[in-house]
Amino acid sequence: MNLIAIRPRPEDQYPPPNRDGELGTISLRWFLAVFLRRRILIACTAVIAASFCFATLLLQRPNYTAVALVMINPGQDRTLQPTQSINGAEVSQTAPVVDSQLEVLRSQMLAGRLVDDLNLVADPEWNPLARRDAAGPPATPSPRTRVKVVAAVTKAIEVRRRGLTYAVEVSVTALTPDRAAQMANRLVELFQQQQMESRLQNVDRASAWLASRVRELRDDVQAKEAAAERYRAQRGLLSAQGALLTEQQTTEIQGSMMQARADLAEKEARYRQLEQTVNSGGSADAIAGVLSSSVIAQLRSQEAEIARRQADLESRYGDQHPAVVNVRAEREDNRNQINAEIARISSSLHSEVEIARARLNTLEGSMSAMRGELVGNNEQLLTLREYNREAAAARAVYETFLQRFNEIADQGSLQSTAELVSAATPPTLPNKLSLSIAFLLSAALGLGLGIIAGLLAEALDEGFGDADDVESKLGVAALAVIPQLSAGDLRQLPLAYRHPAAYLIKRPVSAFTEACRVLRTAILFDASRPKSQVVAVTSAAPGEGKTTLSLCLARISALSGQRVLLIDCDLRRRSVKDILGIEPLTGLLQVLAGEVQWRQAIYVDEATGMHVLPLSDSGFSSKDVFGSEDMDRLLSQLRESFDMIVLDCAPVLAVAETRVIVGKADGAVFVASWNKTSARAVRTALKQLQSAGAKVQGVALNSVHRRMPGYYSYPAYGLNKT
């Protein structure tokens, strides 16, 4: 017969235990499991919290809310700000400015001013201690009391902006409508005063700083201008009307040279024209036109009159007549006068030409000297211009600061940045919380606290919730999940059978019986180990149900047709005989002591055919009976007679010899109670067993609630089926 393993190797399937926490993988299934396991705690916490919250909401005193409307004007304060330069350039950031004003309205600083202004520390509404001191004289409040009152007033103030506008609603909630309106209006007034004081302080600080800066810049301008003038005087770079004297003289000489050249050219042209006319034998009329002389023109007119008279006299008297001779002499004299005038004018023109040429030469010499002087002063002029530029830059900065200083000198007369648009009026109706909203809030709060309590209890619980929880926390296989038998399940049976070991006989197709079969199958058909003939069943601490599970495992194996022997190895409890209702005179200790043979001490279970080697009430040995050769010899003999030997061992952490007897078995089954056994205790017990050489096959999770998510059973195997 070929046997196929129903479980793979544990070291191949299961990861090492999760040491980081005990909550496991977070999932919807995990939450459902937690909810079902902690349903009573969650329900009680939720009901108590919801009831308390609902009662608190209903018993609250009615309060009133007064609203004042304020308009924020972020662009009025023109005092120098961090976002504004000296020259007045400013980036538009109105939204941050308005938000900053809202934070000032919400600040505890402004609330503290309101508390001091209205003396709210003495108001019992805001200071409960004031009720106790009402009978006596008013006492000076302590700083801690004032801090608490300011915090309470801050919570009662709500500041909200209307959309993207500059309109701001300032709401104050108080127990009386008059007090709410008074606090809202006074808060706005204090805000306006604070803004005015802050702006005046900014103006004073800016004015003081700018005045100091203006003085420094003025001194700097004077120093730089004085340095430029000293350098100009030291280098002889004198100036008039904004320009250097050398440059002015050069310009004047250049203009005189141009005029002298033009005058010389004109005079040379007139002189050459006169010479050309005279040399070419031109007439006196032509010469008179060239010279433009009124004297020659007059002599030429006289000559024409003389010529007319000469012609008249010659025609009348003849050539030899004395009158004709006199006229001819007069005409000759006139011509000599004309020639003399021409000679005089020609000599005068020549002299003028020479004078003009000499003047031009003189001007050119002066120009050459000036150019040499300018070339020599080039380096000094560059340095002087640098001095002038520095002085001009310093003066520009000085004038800018001086202008800004004059602009903010009268900033204290500006209006407030906040304008009260609508004053708060005493409200007529109190703030009411509807019953439905109060119920929903209470229910939500209660459910939330209940879930938190359940999760907290789950986090602090070190037990096992399901098979996956066992494998993730311990790193070993979960062999079977044994369901819990309720009192109602057992009451269906006769009184003599109201025990889980008898229940599986009466209910062979129940979920409990099937779970025991699964445990047997997991032990026998483990491909990772040889056939387990001797199986030890133990637990970490007493009360885990290991004896009951050992008896159920032995009985279900016997019902399957195997020859099974159950040995009670718990020397202190000896509970197998009590469950089976037998009173043995001899038992395991007598067999190991050699007093009787093992066949004489064995009992047979008539219902299943299971054999039992119990512990009798008599006899106790302080020796290590399980570590002796007698125990090894007994197990060797029993292996030849039985197919399966189940050792019901004591808890590992309670009894030291348990590690010895479990180490002699072919395999060990560790029993852990559902949602009860500590994972740390199981890990400690497993380490002790492994150090003793025990072969732990896995963990059987006992007493699991059937409604737990992750617990599976077929309907045909329900507990009510027979």
Number of strands: 14
Largest beta sheet, briefly?
8 strands, mixed
| CATH domain topology of the largest domain | Rossmann fold
CATH architecture of the largest domain: 3-Layer(aba) Sandwich
Count of domains: 4
> What is the CA-CA span between the terminal residues?
32 Å
Summed over residues and divided by their number, the pLDDT gives a mean of: 78
Based on CA inertia axes, which overall geometry fits? elongated
The number of helical elements comes to 25
Give the % helix.
Answer: 55-70%
Q: How are the strands of the biggest sheet laid out side by side?
A: 7-14-13-8-12-9-11-10
Would you write up a description of this structure?
With 722 residues, this protein is of the alpha/beta class. Strand 4 and strand 5 (243-244) form a beta hairpin. It contains 25 helices and 14 strands. It is 57% helix and 10% strand. It has helices spanning 10-13, 28-37, 39-59, 94-106, 108-118, 129-132, 143-156, 177-235, 245-279, 284-291, 294-317, 322-376, 378-407, 435-460, 467-474, 487-491, 500-506, 511-524, 546-559, 576-580, 588-593, 598-601, 629-641, 658-663, 679-691, and strands spanning 64-72, 157-161, 167-174, 239-240, 243-244, 418-422, 478-483, 534-539, 564-568, 603-604, 611-613, 644-648, 667-673, 696-704. The chain folds into four domains: 28-56 and 433-457, no CATH class; 63-81 and 92-210 and 415-422, EIF_2_alpha (Alpha-Beta Plaits, 2-Layer Sandwich); 243-376, no CATH class; 475-717, 3-Layer(aba) Sandwich (Rossmann fold). Helix 17 packs parallel to helix 19 (546-559).
